[in-house]
């Protein structure tokens, strides 16, 4: 599919959003996993063992028990954070060879199942600093369906021939902000909304919206990418909704109508997943609609 501004430029739109999920691996810095790689427990579904260190500084009125508990909580929080990274990365590795369609893994949280203290004690150089090193078994926890924002997305036509025009319709059950993406067969990503002409991506609960908006000089038109040889392409539109106006994607339209990331812009999907994972699962959602393009 391609975008064409009337009397202006065309931009190709073929979508395969999850084609770029393998790039999520680049989100994780080498420092996080270089020293002590978390080990999956093969007898337990999805759970992993991770090691983490925590610390706490003793104040004038703190008891030893309070310091120990604070250091332990610090280590547990770091263990959960590390495990969540593993859950996301593992899902990406599995999905990289599949036509996965959702980003639910970006909403994963961790629940501590078991903790073993490996070492604890006062720092040798700073006697007011207490350190705890532990090993924790962490279970992935995903949000229940129906919580938070609900999003519906559809197209005016799902079976398209080259040259057909199409509109995207979307509706949310809560006031929120939407981000509409298309991903081409070559892995490039186009952020359709917000854009330089329509920067406002706010949505009112229950109201049905369409893109392009009525009266807009933007048209969505189905086009095969240059060099695409197959007679049929199954493509996708991905819409993400957030409760608050979030910077989940870097905006910048100085060079044209839309924000475009080519297939080598690996930081885009990495940064997107990172930002979504920092939100509460009930504060965002996503939906996908599929269409077929035929010659």
Structure description:
This protein has 295 residues and is an alpha+beta fold. The protein has two domains: 2-23 and 145-294, no CATH class; 24-141, Acetamidase/Formamidase-like domains (Endonuclease I-creI, Roll). The chain is 16% helix and 36% strand. It contains three helices and 17 strands. The protein has helices at 30-33, 64-95, 267-278; strands at residues 2-5, 10-12, 39-40, 48-57, 109-122, 129-141, 151-155, 159-161, 168-172, 176-183, 189-193, 202-203, 209-211, 218-221, 232-242, 259-261, 284-294. Strands 8, 10, 11, 12, 15, 16 and 17 form a seven-stranded mixed sheet that branches. Strands 3-4-6-5 form a four-stranded antiparallel sheet. A three-stranded antiparallel sheet has the order 2-1-14, with no helix packed on it. A hairpin with a 7-residue loop joins β3 (39-40) and β4. The chain is elongated and about 70 Å long. It starts with a strand and ends with a strand. Residues 2-44 and 93-101 have low confidence and may be disordered.
């Amino acid at each position: 599919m391609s975008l064409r501004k009337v009397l202006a430029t065309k931009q190709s739109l073929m979508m395969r959003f999850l084609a770029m999920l393998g790039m999520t691996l680049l989100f994780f810095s080498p420092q996080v996993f270089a020293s002590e790689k978390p080990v999956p427990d093969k007898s337990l579904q999805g759970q992993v063992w991770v090691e983490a260190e925590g610390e706490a500084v003793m104040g004038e009125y703190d008891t030893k028990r309070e310091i120990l508990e604070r250091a332990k909580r610090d280590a547990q929080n770091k263990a959960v954070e590390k495990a969540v990274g593993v859950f996301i990365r593992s899902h990406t590795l599995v999905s990289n060879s599949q036509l996965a369609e959702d980003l639910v893994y970006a909403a994963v949280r961790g629940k501590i199942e078991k903790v073993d203290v490996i070492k604890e004690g006062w720092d040798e150089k700073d006697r007011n600093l207490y350190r705890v090193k532990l090993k924790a078994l962490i279970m992935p926890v995903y949000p229940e369906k129906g919580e938070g924002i609900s999003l519906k997305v559809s197209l005016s036509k799902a079976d398209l021939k080259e040259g057909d025009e199409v509109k995207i319709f979307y509706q949310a059950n809560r006031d929120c902000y939407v981000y509409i993406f298309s991903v081409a067969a070559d892995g490039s990503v186009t952020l359709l909304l917000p854009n330089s002409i329509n920067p406002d991506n706010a949505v009112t609960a229950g109201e049905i919206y369409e893109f392009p908006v009525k009266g807009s000089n933007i048209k969505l038109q189905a086009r095969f990418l240059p060099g695409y040889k197959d007679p049929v392409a199954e493509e996708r539109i991905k819409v993400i909704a957030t409760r608050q106006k979030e910077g989940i994607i870097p905006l910048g339209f100085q060079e044209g109508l839309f924000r475009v990331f080519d297939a080598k812009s690996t930081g885009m999907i990495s940064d997107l997943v990172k930002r979504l994972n920092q939100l509460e699962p009930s504060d965002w959602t996503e939906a996908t609609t599929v269409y077929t393009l035929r010659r």
